[in-house]
Design a protein that fits this description.
The chain is mostly beta strands. The chain is 7% helix and 58% strand. The chain folds into two domains: 6-155, Immunoglobulin-like (Sandwich), CATH 2.60.40.10; 161-285, Immunoglobulin-like, CATH 2.60.40. A hairpin with a 2-residue loop joins β12 and β13. The protein is elongated, with a radius of gyration of 29 Å.
């Protein structure tokens, strides 16, 4: 969501001293004032373990001389409680009559949110606040701090769950077999999950002698809903041994296990990394 820009304006005798090239007849009100504009918070990266947010600040320098940012102090709050504090010590020079972007990485684990509030485990989003100070070197002897703050709401992303609905042979011979597995993918999130790709390693009849087929379709899993996803794999019978007789005659239903990951597209406008990878693990018996 777009929120009104937060602007911090200030004026100092030190800035006026830096701008000695300006006309001496200008009053204090006439001297251009540097600005700090909070552009917003983006989700740079997201995973099962946590997320990295990027807070973007635009610092404008309208003076005819350059200014230096030696450091930026910041704090990240969740639901009104401080999650962590940090300092960005990277030196940034803002050219005269120009501007620059200061990006603050805000990395956290989902478990840190649960520690702050167990209620967040049941919620679809959380309230955040980013605040701090940008330090500006306006002269050799003067350093001033410009405050900034932004509040907003961001989604909590939860992994989908998987359950096997059907597994059966679609082709069977003494050389090998092809099986089809219908998996129900459950989406606990309040937004659509678009499944772009799914791949994994297959164990068939206790042997790593099977391979997943090409993932043909894209699937859309509705918010707080579920949808079936089809997986196919081929098994080579050359290393199965005596089990092949029971499989071919139908007296034995072999087991299978698939462990891999699913690549999904998340339609979250604040998210830079649109594709998120979730692990999955399923298993069962293949029926004739």
């Amino acid at each position: 969501m777009m929120m009104p820009q937060y602007r911090s304006k200030w004026l100092s005798i030190g800035i006026i001293a830096v701008g000695v090239g300006l006309s001496t007849c200008k009053t204090l009100q006439q001297v251009a004032q540097p600005e700090v504009i909070f552009q917003g918070v983006r989700i740079g990266k997201i995973s099962l373990k946590g997320a990295t947010l990027i807070a973007q600040l635009q610092v404008k320098n309208p003076l005819p001389v350059s200014l230096t940012i030696p450091k930026t102090d910041y704090e990240f709050d969740v639901e009104g409680k401080s999650l962590f504090e940090g300092t960005r010590n990277k030196k940034v020079v803002i050219p005269a009559n120009n501007s620059t972007i200061v990006a603050l990485p805000l990395r956290f684990q989902w478990s840190q949110l649960w520690e702050i509030s167990q209620v967040l485990r049941e919620q679809d989003s959380f309230q955040y606040a980013v605040k701090g100070k940008i330090h500006l070197q306006v002269s050799e002897s003067q350093l001033i701090a410009v405050p900034f703050q932004r509040k907003g709401k961001l989604p909590i992303v939860r992994p989908p769950s998987f359950s096997v609905e059907e597994s059966k042979f679609v082709h069977l011979s003494k050389e090998g077999a092809e099986a089809r597995v219908i998996v129900r993918m459950n989406n606990p999130n309040p937004f659509v999950l678009q499944v772009k790709h799914l791949k994994g390693d297959v164990m068939f009849a206790g042997n790593a002698n099977a391979q997943m087929g090409a993932f043909q379709d894209e699937y859309v899993i509705p918010p707080k809903g579920s949808a079936p996803v089809e997986i196919r794999f081929r098994a080579d019978f050359s290393n199965i041994g005596k089990s092949i007789v029971g499989i071919l005659t139908g007296s034995e239903e072999p087991t299978f296990a698939i462990q891999g990951h699913v690549i999904t597209h998340l339609p979250i406008k604040e998210l830079d990394q649109k594709e998120v990878v979730f692990p999955f693990k399923i298993g069962g018996q293949v029926h004739h």
